[in-house]
From TrEMBL, chain A:
Name by which UniProt lists this protein: Putative spermidine/putrescine transport system permease protein
InterPro entries: MetI-like (IPR000515), MetI-like_sf (IPR035906)
CDD domains assigned: TM_PBP2
Localization annotation: Cell membrane
Lineage: Bacteria, Bacillati, Actinomycetota, Actinomycetes, Streptosporangiales
Keyword Transmembrane helix listed: yes
Alphabetical UniProt keywords: Cell membrane, Membrane, Transmembrane, Transmembrane helix, Transport
Annotated ABC transmembrane type-1 domain residues: 58-262
Membrane-protein topology: Multi-pass membrane protein
Family: Belongs to the binding-protein-dependent transport system permease family. CysTW subfamily.
Record carries keyword Transmembrane: yes
PROSITE patterns attached to this UniProt entry: ABC_TM1
UniProtKB/TrEMBL annotation, chain B:
Localization (cell): Cell inner membrane; Cell membrane
Organism, scientific name: Nonomuraea polychroma
Any Pfam family hit: BPD_transp_1
Name of the protein this chain belongs to: Putative spermidine/putrescine transport system permease protein
SUPFAM superfamilies according to UniProt: MetI-like
Highest taxon above the source species: Bacteria
Record-annotated ABC transmembrane type-1 domain positions: 72-273
Amino acid sequence: MSRTRSKGWLGALPLLAFFALVFGVPAIALVVGAFTVQGRPSLANLAQSLQGGYLNAMIGSVRLSAVVALLGAVLGTFLAHAVVTSRFTLLREAVLTASGVLANFGGVPLAFFWIATLGNSGVVSGLIGLPSGSLYTFWGLVVVYLYFSIPLMVLVMAPALDGLRPQWREAAANNGATAWHYWRFVALPVLTPAMLGGVVLLFGSSFSAYATANAMVGTVVPLVTLKIASALTGDVLIGYENIALALSLDMVVVAGLVMAVYLPLQRRSSRWLH
Amino acid sequence: MAALTGLEPVAAVAKPPARPRVWRGVVFLLAAAYFLIPLGASFWYTVHTPVEGVSLSAYGELLTAEGFVRSLLLSLGLAVATIVLVLLLSLPAMLAVRLFAPRLRPVMEMLCTLPLVVPPITFVAGIGTSLRVGTDVLAPTPFWRTIIAVQDPGFPVVLVLAYVVLVLPFVYRSLDSGLRTMDVRTLVEAARNLGASWPYVVFRVVVPNLRSALASASFLTLALVLGEYTVASLLGYEPFAVWIVTVSGSAGQLSVAVSILSLLLIWLLLLAVSTVFGREKQK
């Protein structure tokens, strides 16, 4: 047994090697490329990626993701609470299943759904007299992104809300707490980690979304993913690829920062919900 | 009424059931409107034209549409290859970590979560650069053929490699929860002591116990690969999701029809996952 024991970890080797090659090499290429201008080490790409139109796109992406994450978190929590406290098992199951489907429904088809609904020749936009082009704006994107963000939040929050024991509410009420007191001092503190996790998840999924935005707004709304794509596909001058790499590095840093804020908060958490 | 009588908390407990029900109804109505109207409107969009009236021709056109079958087959092929490769890589690794190298476990967990943090588009940027540089650097060596073959437009292996990384977090999570439900160490040691070879242990002892976890990992991978757009389009290939965008320019109705079908497909796949898992729970 000792011989197999010492060799057993070799089973993990293919995956590690694969990861080093397929994830590691592009990561190195990304970092090296971001710091290279015409074959020489330089900070020019990064500097340029944080100016003018590129900076606007980054700010636009962060703003969009933040708005979607906060709105989605609040609305999703309300919906999850309505679902969890509902007495109709069938309705509850239906909403949770639908959330599972819609949370996975992003990308190109989502954009086409909304274009068919509220786009320039959409079915509903004509009925309600929506001015043409209003879907292809910042707030149009928010409305569309909420379509997968709210269900995602419902999936995150439903188990957490299920974990709230009715006894806590009774205990609070017996001590003279109002509903507001109960939520402010008992339920929300217990739910905070799950909500934060949801916000981070929602932020990340909108921040990195490209397919929906590309199919929907093209370049009307400045977003960092759209900028990276146009710099990569080379419809601009040679040398812009490295700007794309610098922008990508900026994106990874933003995503990493969001995770770095979230992880310590999450670690202190879920003492009550298990 | 403002005076505290001590009876009020009791009244407060008795009251809530009436109010939240109205509130809940409003929430459900708003949610239903927001989520169902686009569904209905999209369906109407596909079946109704001012000229022809109502017809299902958009769905009929699908099969004959240029590129539909080709792109769908390509996507399915990529999905199958991704499923096979990701399972071949992750299952032995996870078993090895569980049985022999528990200290590798945090490393593994981190590696398998990393792709979630990194936006796919930045991953593509890195892959594209590596391929370009790699083709130049490897040109004088025999590996050049490999890197060219990997990018074959008929079956882009590079997409399979990228997809394996992208689905790793989901596969890891479902296999991990599957492995949690069984005592791997005891099972494997018992089988080994009875003289079973390693392949026998893996395929006849471990895999059958993991059936539902493997199925859910495969379904999730299938759904992800079929809908994947970012990586494929930026590397210049045309699987299914990229084809829909191409066709949307000339045939709007068709692209919305495909979108509805893809929602149905996701729904079916998730249904399959939940029935597989549901059956497991009942055992």
